[in-house]
Amino acid sequence: MTASSSVNADPAELAKFSELAHRWWDTESEFAPLHRINPLRLGWIESQVPLAGKRALDVGCGGGILADSMARQGAKVLGIDLSTKALRVAQLHALEAGTPNVEYREVSVEGLAMEQAGAFDVVTCMEMLEHVPDPGSVVRSCAELVKPGGWVFFSTLNRNAKAFLYAIVGAEYVLNLLPRGTHEYLKFIRPSELAGFCRSAGLDWVETKGLEYNPLLRRYRLSRDASVNYLVATRRR
Questions:
Q1: CATH of 11-236, one of 3.40.50.150, 3.90.580.10, 3.30.990.10, 3.40.50.2000
Q2: Does the annotation flag 170 for ligand binding?
Q3: Which of 66, 121, 139, 224 sits at a 20 to 30 Å CA gap from 43?
Q4: Is 114 annotated as a binding residue?
Q5: Model confidence at 44, in pLDDT bands (50, 70, 90)?
Q6: Distances (CA, A) of 108 to 36, 61, 122, 192
Q7: Are strands 76-81 and 102-106 parallel, antiparallel or unpaired?
């Protein structure tokens, strides 16, 4: 499936991440922050729902960092994305690493929801909502894809002055943690807005965690401070 005007994707965003696709599994590359936060978000997901034996979907999987780790925890995982290059990298890594029970497909979340409604125990959509034109559509489709009582996890960026200073000025221009232009401030999503999308989609908000970065120690940690990066656990009614 290719990006078009009927697909909930920004061609410029797809091009941006496609250009960097070959660096997804370089732990010192532009994707280093994702490698560093992945154990935190994986552990948090497992604290809500043990993944062994579950059928899991990773929406906007990119090069497969989270999808691969969920499969290694015993889940049967499908990773989807609209970046052909990123998916090829994910598939190659799974082959080289011998990761069991992980597959990748180039399909939109809306398209997959039409095929496999209620098919998954766990759905994750991390660091993606702030990159699409219609995040509410993504939330609705994630809710359609999970079984009743199943879990849907999101992570994104809050929209306020602190988030602008930390996530754009600090991360992209001062500390060079991310390439400049990675994020657009106006696409950041307040928790109240995400909560509205979840309510409309039939998802109950269970828990929120903040993600903080200490530039002196170069370490990330989960906290109660959701003013910049935050993660949300929800369940389908």
A1: 3.40.50.150
A2: no
A3: 139
A4: no
A5: very high
A6: 27, 11, 17, 25
A7: parallel
